[in-house]
């Protein structure tokens, strides 16, 4: 199910209302869903491999703790932060500035300008330190997204969401 950006994220406690949470694609909503964002964000770092290792291990511990509590939303948010640790450190590994494009495609108003901006990729400047940080996060991300209990809770959550949506529309 698509991530629902129309929700009032400032006023929803997703621990109290997990039925409103949609997994979406990739890292969608990672900086919106509370109280999880505030619980996990302070530990999210990737500047050096040592920092990335400490960060990914702490967030993975949180992931496991959420699973132990059968808190799917918390576990999924921890998984998203781990995934974001990988994607952001990979971006910095490839582009020193952390920017992939010369101009931000999302700020372009016309579809043709957005398309052109996506073709205007900055040159690669491989940073082996950030690449190592990315590899550390990637290992934890794979562990998280393939964790059997996580997959079970994902299926249960999807079933609850479908039931909630069906009941809401009747």
Automatic annotation (TrEMBL):
User: Per its UniProt record, what InterPro entries does this chain match?
Assistant: DUF4385
* Composition skew (Basic residues), residue ranges: 93-102
Q: Which domain of life is it from?
A: Bacteria
> Where is region (Disordered) located?
93-114
Read off the Pfam families from this record. Answer: DUF4385
Which segments show compositional bias classed as Polar residues? 103-114
What is this protein's record name? DUF4385 domain-containing protein
The scientific name of the source species is Hassallia byssoidea VB512170
């Amino acid at each position: 199910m698509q991530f629902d950006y129309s929700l009032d994220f400032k006023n929803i406690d997703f621990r109290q209302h997990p039925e409103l949470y949609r997994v979406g694609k990739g890292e969608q909503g990672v900086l919106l869903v509370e109280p999880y964002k505030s619980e996990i964000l302070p530990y999210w770092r990737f500047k050096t491999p040592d920092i990335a290792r400490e960060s990914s291990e702490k967030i993975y511990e949180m992931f496991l703790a959420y699973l132990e509590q059968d808190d799917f939303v918390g576990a999924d948010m921890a998984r998203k932060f781990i995934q974001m640790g990988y994607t952001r450190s990979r971006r910095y590994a490839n582009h020193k500035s952390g920017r992939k494009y010369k101009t931000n495609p999302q700020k372009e108003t016309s579809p043709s300008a957005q398309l052109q901006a996506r073709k205007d990729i900055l040159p690669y400047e491989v940073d082996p330190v950030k690449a190592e940080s990315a590899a550390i996060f990637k290992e934890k991300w794979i562990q998280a997204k393939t964790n059997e209990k996580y997959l079970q809770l994902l299926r249960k959550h999807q079933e609850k969401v479908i039931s909630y949506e069906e009941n809401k529309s009747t």
